[in-house]
Write a structure and sequence with these properties.
Blueprint: E1 3-10, E2 19-26, E3 32-42, H1 44-50, E4 67-74, E5 86-89, E6 92-94, H2 100-103, E7 114-115, E8 120-121, E9 126-127, E10 135-139, E11 144-145, H3 152-155, H4 161-171, E12 179-183, H5 187-198, E13 202-207, H6 213-219, E14 223-226, H7 230-235, E15 240-245, H8 254-257, E16 260-268, H9 282-287, E17 290-293, H10 299-312, E18 318-321, H11 326-334, E19 341-345
Parallel strand pairs: 12-13, 12-15, 13-14, 15-16, 16-17, 18-19
Antiparallel strand pairs: 1-2, 3-4, 3-10, 3-19, 4-5, 5-11, 6-7, 8-9
Bound molecules: NADP nicotinamide-adenine-dinucleotide phosphate (NAP) and zinc ion (2 copies).
Residues 95-96, 99, 101-102, 110, 112 line the site of one zinc ion.
Length: 351
């Protein structure tokens, strides 16, 4: 298969900075859409993967899975997209299409799902590279349409931060009056507040950062609880139906489980790995409470979310950066200094 050499930004090792790299993309097959990337969001997962926090990164790593761009070419068999159209690509670029998860629009749980970066491109027999790059070639089944009324750069984070919080909100039937809490106000957290609010839930933010209180209220939270303040935590014992926990590092879940109502569920979407401290089963058994996890969302559900955002005029709160600033953006992300998603203007890659 012929390949095209393009510019990208990535890293060759866990302890190296991100820098300009050349990578190969496949030439579009008949089912492929080739997209010139205009904006790419910066997810905390990009940082985890670039630095091998999860232990399975393959280098070089080119992160980025919140992609908005313009179609520059479509293969002969493409029916859904046209050259010149503005489109989006999220965390998934392929899956087996035949397993039960794929048949049920749950491609993210397909044993053979292909991540936008760090996955396996079966056409090239090589790792996939993400959106910190000039262009990307994606099977049309994994390309999304975007609402015309929304700011392009502000759409990008919907593709990961949005869908990762939307999927559990929908699965756990969040709607009018549901008592929802969100742990952590970063990229995922701020989208969770906006989306739960738009679903007419009653929304609380659990945060360690009192200075984010006003922002949380402006985003749609009804209340902010400072999670390190014991009195504030005691006031909300037994209250929530659903908690979406976006914290990226190991932390104690037990104080949050205490704030669940009978039959409530705490959904982990952030930290991946063994919990520290251990979870105490007593309040879970005594109150039929659950701790669950959730991974991004399927393609149909991501399209549903993009359409919902178009209807409700929802985009992410973003700070636009140049690709050359991405290493500094990672350091700010580690200090919880994100308001509330960095989005890279990919034109900067050409400069
Ligand atoms: P982010 O923008 O850095 O936000 C994380 C927020 O968590 C911070 O702003 C902070 O909020 C809080 N926090 C950070 N460190 C903490 C600590 N040690 N203890 C307690 N709270 C802490 O990150 P993000 O992009 O939203 O991503 C969050 C996590 O979700 C990452 O681990 C990412 O890999 C993961 N993720 C998972 C999926 C999935 O499919 N499940 C998809 C995307 C991302 P406060 O200042 O308010 O406390
Ligand atoms: Zn992500
Ligand atoms: Zn499958």
């Amino acid at each position: 298969m012929t390949v095209k050499n393009i510019k990208a930004f990535g890293t060759e090792a866990a302890d190296a900075l991100l820098e300009p790299l050349d990578i190969n993309r496949r030439e579009a097959t008949p089912k492929d859409v080739e997209i010139d990337i205009l904006y790419c969001g910066v997810c905390h997962s990009d940082l985890h993967f670039a630095r091998n926090d999860w232990g399975f990164s393959v280098y070089p790593v080119v992160p980025g899975h919140e992609i908005v761009g313009k179609v520059t070419h479509v293969g002969d068999d493409v029916t859904k997209f046209q050259t010149g159209q503005l489109v989006a690509v999220g965390c998934l670029v392929d899956s087996c299409r035949t397993c039960n998860n794929c048949k049920n629009d749950l491609e993210q749980y397909c044993p053979e799902w292909v991540g936008t970066y760090g996955g396996h491109d079966k056409h090239l027999n090589s790792p996939t590279f993400g959106g910190y790059s000039e262009s990307i070639v994606v099977d049309e089944d994994f390309v999304l349409s975007i609402p015309e009324n929304l700011d392009l750069a502000g759409i990008a984070p919907i593709l990961c931060a949005g869908i990762t919080t939307w999927s559990p909100l929908r699965y756990w039937n969040v709607g009018k009056g549901t008592k929802v809490a969100v742990v952590g106000l970063g990229g995922l957290g701020h989208m969770a507040i906006k989306l739960a609010h738009a679903l007419e839930a009653e929304v609380t933010l659990f945060s360690r950062s009192p200075k984010k209180t006003q922002d949380a209220m402006d985003l749609g939270a009804d209340k902010v609880v400072i999670s390190t303040d014991e009195d504030q935590m005691n006031d909300v014992q037994g209250y929530y139906d659903v908690i979406i926990d976006t914290v990226p590092y190991a932390h104690d879940l037990n104080p949050y489980i205490g704030t669940l109502n009978t039959s409530g569920t705490l959904v982990l979407v952030g930290y991946l790995g063994p919990m520290d401290a251990m979870v105490n089963s007593i309040p879970m058994i005594m109150g039929r409470k659950a701790v669950a996890g959730s991974l991004i969302g399927g393609i149909a559900e991501t399209q549903e979310l993009l359409d919902f955002c178009g209807k409700h005029n929802i985009t992410s709160e973003i700070e636009i950066i140049n690709i050359q600033d991405v290493n500094e953006a990672y350091e700010r992300m580690l200090k919880s200094d994100v308001h509330y998603r960095f989005v890279i203007d990919m034109a900067s890659l050409k400069s």
